[in-house]
Specification:
This protein has 397 residues and is of the alpha/beta class. It has three domains: 122 residues, Rossmann fold (3-Layer(aba) Sandwich); 136 residues, Rossmann fold, CATH 3.40.50.2300; 100 residues, Arc Repressor Mutant, subunit A. 46% of the residues lie in helices and 13% in strands. It is built from 15 helices and 13 strands. β6, α4 and β7 form a beta-alpha-beta unit. α1 crosses α8, α3 crosses α4 and α5 packs across α6. It starts with 8 loop residues before the first strand and ends in a 7-residue tail after the last strand.
Amino acid sequence: MEALRTTPKVALLIETSNSYARELLHGVRAWVREHAPWSIRLTEQGRGAAAPDWLRGWDGQGFIARVESPAIARALAATRLPVIDVSAALPELAFPRVATEARGTARLAAGHLAERGVRHFAYCGDRRFHWARRRGEEFAAAAEALGGTCAMFAPPPGTVDEEVDLIARWLHTLPRPVGVLGCLDRRGQQVLAACRQAGLRVPDEVAVIGVHNDELLCELCDPPLSSVIPNARRAGYEAAALLDRAMAGRRVPARLHEIPPVGVAARQSTDLGAVGDPKIAQVLRLMREQAATGINVADVLRAVPMARTALERRFKAVLGTSPHAHLRRLRMERVRELLVRTSLPVGEIALATGFEHVEYLSAMFRRECGLSPRAFRAKHAPGGEAISGSAYPAEER
């Protein structure tokens, strides 16, 4: 008789205090439900906490962990069990790592700001973490590629008030209007607080965007904070798949597996205040709010009356593209987000984004993204095809 399979014991050293980590856990859960059951140990702990006392001598088979300090890395390595790292706080790759793509995150943030008329960019980071340094490097490169300038700043660790005070002083030195990327949403929240302290208007003088789209935190900001949306569920799913292979005795090299971000959640902190042309600012606001309803350029001109040639000329001067192309891009952004973050059928996504016929959505999506909607979902949603690895450590928080 064939021996019964033993249920693997897996420990998740992942905090539950922030949305990114919770989404990682959702991704792990999705993999386990679709494949083989695990006996999971998940204990309450803070981010960057010391190795738990039970780690030494634990009789499990593997770990998925946020490896955020050399001490944690050493403690996990000492167990001689398979480990998948779902953080990028450390520059060296001690274990296989699954992380959000630094370059894609930076380009989304820079492009979002540039579309709102920003030509001066700035990055407010955190010098303690590798992911924050990489994100800043990529953001500066993205700003330069867009023809802009980029100032860099990372306040030394201190109390929240001390850090906000230093950020406020730095903001005063920047040319305005300026678009600031906070290395994550909490840093973006601090930048907004620093703007209030410095008497700088958001978004007219300083447009602010964060990373991770912690919806509760972003909506509690004043004004609500725009943010890059990572694909943390896919990261958790991929980490679980890698750990399963390692626990089965298959070789899993210590390399980076990058997960592209989904898009940008636009809120008031980047709400077009940097655009100097009031009419175009009005047009852009209307487009952002109504693109998914299927409006076209004629609808825009009825709401914001002007000659079509004037709209085309002024729009091109501010954004470097046509009104029609911008509307199409906004609709495709929403389609991509729904494909990755929901299980809605493609037909329902078509209706939700202003397409009467799913065939037209599929044709436009393939033209814009190079894949059909179903192939895109298979590639980027949890349970899709494997993410390609990279030899150099990019990012992630």
